[in-house]
TrEMBL record:
Domain (TonB-dependent receptor-like beta-barrel) ranges: 282-735
Alphabetical keyword list: Cell outer membrane, Ion transport, Iron, Iron transport, Membrane, Receptor, Signal, TonB box, Transmembrane, Transmembrane beta strand, Transport
Positions of the UniProt region annotated as Disordered: 30-52, 277-298
Protein name: TonB-dependent receptor
Major location category of this protein: membrane
Species lineage: Bacteria, Pseudomonadati, Pseudomonadota, Alphaproteobacteria, Sphingomonadales
Native species: Sphingomonas floccifaciens
Amino acid sequence: MRAKYLASACAVATLFGTTAAMAQAVVTPATPTTSTKPPLIGQESTDDAPGNDDVIVTATRRAERIQDVPLSITAFQQEELTTKGIVGFEGIARETPGVILNRPTQNFNNFTARGIATNGYNANLQSSVAVYIDELPVSTIGNTTVVDPNLFDVERVEFLRGPQGTLFGSGSLSGAMRILTKSPDLNNFDRSALVDLGLTGSDSFRQRYNAMINVPIIDDRFAVRAVGFYRNEEGYLDNVGTGVHNSNTLIDYGGRVIALIKPTDSFSIRLLASYENSDPKDSSLTSPSLGREKRISDRPDRFTGEQTILNATIDWDLGAGKLTSSSTFSDFNQRFYVDLANTFGFAIPFALDADARDKVFVEEARFVSDFSGPLNFVVGGFYLHRRRDTDFNYRSSIAFLRARNLTGLPDEYYIRQMTYQNSNELAGFGELTYRFSPRFWLTGGVRYGRLDAQAFTEAGGIGSGSNYYALALGGVRNAVITTAPFAAVTGIKAEAKKPSWKASASFKPADNITTYATFSTGFRAPIVNAFAGRPSLVTPNDIIIPAGASSDDLKSYEIGTKTQFLNGLVTINAAAYLIDWSNIQAQANRVSDSVQFATNIGAARSKGVELEMGVVPAKDVFIGLNAAYNDAKITRLSAAEAAISGAVLGHRLSAPRLQGALFTSIGFDLGDTTKGTLAINAQYVGSYNSSFPNTPGRPGVRIATFGKTDEYVNTNISFGIKRGPVSAQAYVENLFDDHSVVYIHPEAFLASRSGTLRPRTVGLRLGYGL
């Protein structure tokens, strides 16, 4: 069951993005690069860029070469996204060391970074990785729909690993991901288009269409950039409950318009309006026991999202630094329709059709100094307000009610409950850097935030104290189901006031080497459980739902180095970390009725190493490698904490011990004006635990839903041709048709709980323009 009036102070919206990347076949030149990514043809330099081959990131809120930033950060530029066929969260996670994506189905995404996860679902817990699109935080709680973005015409994607609380807030407990859309070009007319057609299996057709146009209205002063996209991707699973073939089809469409107004060289206004409608027709979770590519539910499980975003960003260069104000309004409608009947072994119909509407306002203002001396700083303020209205509609079925002659309902819904929640976050933040010399500097940062959230039940609806479960599970016939309205209820307010800290020391023993040591902290907002104090209506002697979970605490210690050799032809970035995570927020489910709840347990320690390497061994040849090792375990746990959560001392958290990726591209001439590129990309992810191993409320008893994902290797291959603005790329995804289980849902109410790789897909991308 969904918790009815969860009160957590996390920022919620949804992602808007764009689909597959620009259709340029990547050709690797023999020029040096400052990234572990392949050097890319047509890569634009910015005003702040030291050189055309430098990868510039803004993870510290100022433009810097990625090799000079004392952070573990992986950056993806548009050309790389295209070559690797990365169109959303899934591809980003597989290419980022130390990161996995727990993805039950389309629009259901939860990142884990550096082992900081008790399961892959995080229901009712604030996400541990903050996700931003431009200035808008869009990450949310684990059982809320978040639209999977389409990555077309983006400037860059940055994934920052480790706590990022000083600049990105409480939701960045273990990292932050930023999707940065591309601003209009004030001087040049531009356009691009990409068509991606693919075939999954024998009869699942995939269509992706993308287009962009950039129009300067007044040279140097005013331009508009517009992007549109449409995806129609037929599914590859058969739902044996509904009888639908290829049931998990995705229809996704939308676009954005960005206007850039620059009345003076020092002042600009950027206006963005975006819309996306993502509509998967069924879930992508499978039941391996039914056979390959099979799932079961009484009706399609629907996790849809419709997102509108409006943003106004003002940048004012004051000489001594840049003042930025970003104001964002987001409107998000979602459906969370799921068959819960496996809670009772399909003995009775039991499902939830939840409709939610989010309205979010976010304001961030900051000043980034640009002093010529040794001292520079970032200082700013952040405010978020969100109202979420959720209608919980629990249903039986007309056929079941008629067969039992159960009356008293106007339709098949025995509970209709209307709720809403108000969440607020107000924070001030700052980072200060002092350079003792060009080779040594110190950075310190703090963010102090006040978070609160409160949920309410509105008067009305039906089903308060409903006797449906007693009648249905008891086999009763010829009875009346109670339909009493709900009384208005004001939930307990969850509040937190806490700082996040950061301190780092950076040293460059040579121009091509950056080393650093960093200490940083993080936390998540407190949780109030919806059914706190209530016994089970099914099994009264089951555990009583606890009050909730207070904020957890995380302390991270990291050392790293970023190096280049042979005039930039070899790049090696490495980091080692140790993380102490205490008062851990954990999600569990009461066994008798699947009610979700949050609680706190002792402590865990995560330690590991990460490596990114890029090599240009010859002209037009690139070899890229990333790898990560992680060891994350429960280190402190009381008997009471073990009993209520199902955790075990020494249990490995839900992250693989080993993972990595290898990318190779070879470019060659196919004539005076035509270039070809052959690319092979393989990702390895080790096995990991799906959840805690024991049953909440039953110490020492193994929970039936516990499992381990498969270790797997996913291999993709492509061959691209580019001539002038026209390009074509043939590709095969999941070359060996691997069917490994890459996600296991930890809750028993789903009969289909396994996520798998998409089967082998053969396709062609046709593109025009850059």
